[in-house]
Specification:
CATH architecture: 3-Layer(aba) Sandwich
CATH class: Alpha Beta
Strand order of the largest sheet: 3-2-1-4-5-7-6
Bound molecules: S-adenosylmethionine
Largest sheet: 7 strands, mixed
CATH superfamily: Vaccinia Virus protein VP39
Radius of gyration: 16 Å
Structural class: alpha/beta
Length: about 190
């Protein structure tokens, strides 16, 4: 049910951003998606990449992603239910690690640890994340979107620490490119590791 609701709400809103991220991947990309949710990004990307491995802490999202993959006969994707913590280290290496609206939901100390550890198993990061609002209207809409979530405290910390750019800089990683999306408060950050 949770997966179905997501696929008909935020997944739909994010389609143009997912397409933008897919265009940044190569056909031979082996990708890990951190906090993959209902698997929508990978299900859209599967024919344009070599393989995808999605990890999420929500059992119902992972079940939904696995069922969709099976029903669509997609064979190059795998999804695993697991909370990503500071010890998370996948068994394989990847050409890319992706994350979409993931880092602001985490306690920021954990976000730093997870971001740093991607350097041990992937060559490049493509991260779609909330960016600083440019005016009061954007600030209010972001607040409204996040205020009633269970991770609001982490979102506040994320903002106070300089949003995604602040997090990437704290990990001493170098941002190659920041791409705008149709939503002025969401940007796509590319980092070569
Ligand atoms: C805002 S949603 C974004 C989902 C997905 N990336 C997307 O683009 O639709 C954040 C996701 O992170 C997952 N999550 C939060 N903390 C996590 C953790 N420590 N380990 C794994 N997944 C986590 C949640 O279950 C949720 O699916």
């Amino acid at each position: 049910m949770k997966g179905w609701i997501k696929s008909h709400t935020s997944d739909r809103y994010l389609i143009p951003i997912r397409e933008q991220m897919i265009n940044m991947l190569d056909p031979d990309a082996r990708v890990i998606d951190l906090g993959c949710g209902s698997g929508d990004f990978f299900i859209r990307a599967h024919s344009k990449i070599e393989s995808g491995f999605g990890v999420d802490g929500s059992k119902s999202f992972i079940k939904y992603a696995q069922n969709r993959t099976k029903n669509l006969n997609i064979t190059n994707l795998a999804f695993k239910h697991r909370m990503i913590d500071q010890h998370f280290k996948p068994k394989a290496d990847f050409t890319h690690a992706t994350a979409c609206l993931f880092f602001h939901v985490l306690p920021q100390e954990l976000a730093v640890q997870i971001l740093k550890s991607t350097t041990t198993y992937s060559d490049r990061l493509i991260i779609c994340a909330f960016a600083p609002p440019e005016n009061r209207k954007q600030r209010f809409l972001m607040w409204l979107d996040q205020r009633f979530t269970s991770h609001y405290r982490h979102y506040r910390e994320y903002c106070q620490n300089g949003y995604m750019e602040g997090l990437i800089k704290k990990c001493q990683l170098h941002i190659d490119d920041i791409a705008d999306t149709f939503d002025p408060t969401i940007k796509i950050y590319s980092v070569k590791l």
